[in-house]
């Protein structure tokens, strides 16, 4: 549903994005995660047809990202979404529905339904007087006025309180369940880990890892095994753990060596636990590896 092929964007001499390639399938939630300045917004804007790539191309719902026809299939939520402060949620959304030529009856029905799903109160209050969370909900509702198949959301939950954040992430899931395709960016790893089917980790303008969270864990993370034994294991660095002893090793072959050593010492293995790295730990490792990456090498 979305295809990004070697997207590149250079501002003067500065390579903001050095080659984003990924695809998002219909009905999938795909997250781009990375620190500030990684190139997430630039990538999303190239996909939304708002920035012209310096090289590479993108398609959305079969249309070239730069084809104005593509806009009919797309709902874009910018990172900052200034609203017309003197309008109410209803009048603001009506205004955008009109821009998209949505027939007024359909628009009213669609807007009310979306605002119901977002549990948005105060629909007739001036937007200048509503909370930040409500403003974000209105901006989300705006991305849906043309009932697009594809949603591109830049940091949809950034700066919101935990309750509203959960609300927004749950809503993204609902969109996927309703058959929409969602591409979104976040710098909070928890957001992508909890809702995305697949993720790409971006750093310094390039995608440094991509896949499902378990795939990324398997490929880039190091799982540790904690082997609990009934006796200290002399050949290994063993720490006391209550009335047992624990040895931390990196792979199953080492687990077997601990088992043999414990047997030789007159004891046995009583438990084995694995510690999976969090996406955050993997992310920090990958970010450290690319410190001298493409941008640094320029
Ligand atoms: N119009 C521009 N002119 C010059 N440099 C730009 C421009 N837009 C973005 N950049 C630079 O390109 C890099 C990538 O910016 P981008 O906004 O895509 O990052 P991001 O990952 O979305 O970061 P954030 O999480 O802070 O929004 C940054 O170093 C930014 O300063």
Q: What do these coordinates show?
A:
- This protein is of the alpha/beta class.
- The protein has two domains: 2-218, P-loop containing nucleotide triphosphate hydrolases (Rossmann fold); 224-275, no CATH class.
- The protein has ten helices and 14 strands.
- The chain has helices at residues 40-47, 89-99, 104-117, 132-143, 162-177, 189-195, 213-220, 252-264, 279-289, 294-297, and strands at residues 2-11, 14-24, 29-33, 55-60, 63-64, 74-77, 150-154, 181-186, 198-203, 206-211, 224-229, 238-241, 244-249, 269-275.
- A six-stranded mixed β-sheet has the order 6-7-8-3-9-10, with helices on both faces. A four-stranded antiparallel β-sheet has the order 2-1-4-5, with helices on one face.
- Helix 5 (162-177) links the parallel strand 7 (150-154) and strand 8.
- Helix 2 crosses helix 3.
- The protein is elongated, with a radius of gyration of 24 Å.
- The mean pLDDT is 87.
- It binds adenosine-5'-triphosphate.
- Adenosine-5'-triphosphate (ATP) binds at residues 11, 14, 16, 34, 36-42, 79, 187.
